[in-house]
Design brief:
four-stranded antiparallel beta sheet, alpha+beta, six-stranded antiparallel beta sheet, 175 residues
């Protein structure tokens, strides 16, 4: 009886391990970027909405390059979202109190993508905390919208352009 239990435990752990290995083999990353312009007229300590132009996805080409297609994609999650100030080049994130990014498409509801509160950075780049929401329908779409909500903590004398680099982890079924 004990040997059957050991054998069953071994087979179960082998099965679970091999499923993770297969998922790793069928996973790849897609990167996209967009720019966010924070206006110098933004109010201090009050959330301000910023809508970016549509982000065109190159997901169909990325799926094809990774020998899959949209219908086989079973899981998409954001892996990282890094913000860097592109203009003015000498500016740091000391002006920013909090930032929340939301994603939507014309066919899908808006959900939170990533955020950072109580920002205390003297660098010109920050990494946001990513949510664990499923993003399949957003990445499979031809384009999506990013809405940004920022709260600043100091007066801005000129507009600030922030580049958002997003990396999504894609997992697809083999057939």
């Amino acid at each position: 009886m004990k040997s059957k239990l050991i054998a069953l435990t071994f087979l179960l752990s082998l099965f679970l391990t091999s499923c993770n290995a297969v998922d790793d083999l069928l996973s790849f990353n897609i990167s996209n970027e967009t720019s966010i312009k924070i206006k110098s007229t933004s109010p201090i300590n009050l959330p301000t909405e910023i809508v970016t132009p549509d982000v065109t996805t190159n997901s169909s080409a990325e799926f094809e390059n990774n020998k899959t297609k949209a219908s086989l994609v079973k899981d998409v999650k954001i892996r990282s979202l890094k913000l860097s100030i592109s203009d003015p080049s000498d500016k740091t994130f000391t002006f920013l109190k909090s930032i929340h990014l939301y994603i939507s498409t014309t066919d899908s509801d808006e959900i939170e993508l990533a955020y950072q509160d109580n920002i205390n950075s003297s660098s010109n780049t920050i990494v946001l905390i990513c949510t664990d929401k499923k993003l399949d329908q957003y990445i499979k779409a031809d384009s999506y919208k990013i809405r940004t909500q920022v709260t600043i903590k100091e007066t801005l004398t000129k507009d600030i352009t922030v580049k958002a680099d997003m990396t999504f982890k894609i997992t697809a079924d083999p057939f």
